[in-house]
Amino acid sequence: MFTVAPAEVASLRRYALTAIAWAVALFGHERLAVAEVRRRIRPDPPGGFDDGWRTLRRWIRQIAQGRLLAPVRVPPDGTYRDQAQHITHAIAARFPSSTGITQAVRIGSTRVITM
Description:
Layout: H1 17-28, H2 34-41, H3 54-64, H4 80-94, H5 101-108
Helix pairs in contact: 1-2, 1-4, 1-5, 3-4, 4-5
């Protein structure tokens, strides 16, 4: 059995790859607090929000390990925010946009999957 879905839908994930890349960009480049990133990605979750959002850190780790999106070389030292900023700039560099880095990441993330 096969499941067919658009390229931006990540296998076994609750969020599309575009949403994941946007969250990383909001956290790393825009330097928003984790709670604000989560509100922007999913404004009305059932059950409300808790204080933390481990999923964002997990995504950053998985991108750095080459298990989510295309492999991006991330310096092993540094905070999650530093790593997210590095990831954001690496993706945006591949897909320049006149609308800014965060938008370039949203647009480019669907094309970064198999690079």
